[in-house]
Amino acid sequence: MYKPSHEGNGLLYAWFLSMHTRVDIILYSQKTERELLLVVNRIYDALCRLEKMANFYDPASELSFVNRTAPTSPVVLSEELYSMIDLCLKYNGKTLGCFDITVHSENYNQNTIQSVHLSVEDHSIYFSQPGVTVNLSGFLKGYALDTIKSILNEFLIENALINIGNSSVLALGNHPVGSGWKVNNILLHNECLTTSGNDSPERRHIVSPRNGKLVEGVQQIAVVTPDGAIGEILSTALFAADGEQRRALMGIYAQCRVYIYPPC
């Protein structure tokens, strides 16, 4: 849907299904409707590419091939998947172990992540014990926001709101009738909002690195950061953390805005 304005800017709204959810896009720009639709198509293609690369649940994805093969022999990764896994491994330490991409491994324990070995020389990966799997689901949507931001910058789109499944949001520039973008009463301006948690006792999906079990309780944690990937990591880590770890992480990342619902 496209709506021109008297000031020369036009407002385009589009949506599509990707990453097992709905993606809503609002673009506000002086570009034509055709140009803005090209931007939407680029975003759609980029998300499809990320799914083919890093979808844990798709047996045809590059990540699934890694999980099947890396326990027996090293696998050379695409440059992008190597960078993604490398970043996630580094943030395991930077989040006090609360963000762990190996929590879905067989016989998981807090040392399982030490079985994932990356080679800088040939960008390969190897798992030094059987049953290890890497799952990027607690990271991928945030990474997708950063990918989308690069596309918007390339096309010189200064005002946009991207919403992936109501849990990962990118806000650039300003709303047509105001400063920034308000999402769930949180004002965003050139920022990402990422959310992790359980919205009901039955819908639990985040595994605790402390014990390998699903985190209980109805709670949502939202983090506002300049980078979607880091925000997604932090929101996942904060939700999985115990009280002491959460306080420590909020001190380490005090520059980020954190919202907890309901408040502790």
Topology:
Blueprint: E1 2-4, E2 10-18, E3 21-29, H1 33-54, H2 62-69, E4 75-76, H3 79-94, E5 116-119, E6 124-127, H4 140-154, E7 159-164, E8 168-172, E9 181-183, E10 186-188, E11 191-198, E12 219-225, H5 228-240, H6 243-252, E13 257-261
EC number: 2.7.1.180
Pfam family, one: ApbE
Protein name: FAD:protein FMN transferase
Concise synopsis of the structure shown:
The protein is an alpha+beta fold and 264 residues long. A hairpin with a 4-residue loop joins strand 5 and strand 6.
Keywords:
3-stranded antiparallel beta sheet; alpha+beta; 8-stranded antiparallel beta sheet; 6 helices
Structure explained in plain terms:
Keywords: FAD, Flavoprotein, Magnesium, Metal-binding, Transferase. This is FAD:protein FMN transferase. It comes from Bacteroides koreensis. α1 (33-54) packs antiparallel against α4. The chain has 264 residues and is α+β, with helices and mostly antiparallel strands. β9 (181-183) and β10 (186-188) form a beta hairpin. The longest helix is centred in the first third of the chain and has 22 residues, at 33-54. Helix content is 32%, strand content 26%. The chain has helices at 33-54, 62-69, 79-94, 140-154, 228-240, 243-252; strands at 2-4, 10-18, 21-29, 75-76, 116-119, 124-127, 159-164, 168-172, 181-183, 186-188, 191-198, 219-225, 257-261. An eight-stranded antiparallel β-sheet has the order 1-2-3-7-8-11-12-13, with helices on one face. The protein has a three-stranded antiparallel β-sheet with strand order 4-6-5, with no helix packed on it. A two-stranded antiparallel ribbon has the order 9-10.
